[in-house]
Design a protein that fits this description.
mainly alpha
Length: about 130
């Protein structure tokens, strides 16, 4: 799990860097890269909780980017997830960032939305890490 937490930290660093660079250049491609990495961080923060629960769930069920599906899968396995309300409420929108940011030429997420998501997901990561998730 330690390796996964370091990958999540790298996703968050990449997102923060792209947000900072966007504010200098206003290149929409940088926002898209930030959106992709934020979605990845959120996805992995859910997956690491499922995997840590040692529920015996088939890992193949986790081969998805869909946050709602992951939440429903955890619930069906009686796994209590820690998810910030913001992420839970926006889970379908955040899910769309995974492919939309990479494959749809006119895809765009507002910078204030990215900043809010980044702040919430970064705090979520720190909370899980400080609670012992490694």
């Amino acid at each position: 799990m330690a390796a996964l937490m370091s990958i999540i930290a790298a996703d968050l660093t990449a997102a923060l860097n792209m947000i900072e660079e966007y504010e200098k250049s206003h290149s929409g491609a940088l926002k898209n890269i930030a959106a992709y990495h934020l979605q990845q961080a959120a996805e992995k923060l859910i997956k690491i909780q499922i995997l840590s629960a040692d529920s015996g769930i088939d890992d193949h069920k986790l081969y998805t980017h869909n946050l709602d599906f992951l939440v429903r899968t955890a619930k069906a396995c009686n796994i209590n997830l820690t998810i910030p309300e913001y992420v839970f409420q926006k889970r379908n929108i955040i899910t769309s960032w995974e492919s939309g940011s990479r494959y749809i030429p006119d895809f765009s997420v507002r910078i204030d939305t990215l900043k809010k998501a980044c702040s919430v997901i970064y705090e979520w990561y720190n909370d899980l890490k400080s609670s012992g998730l490694r």
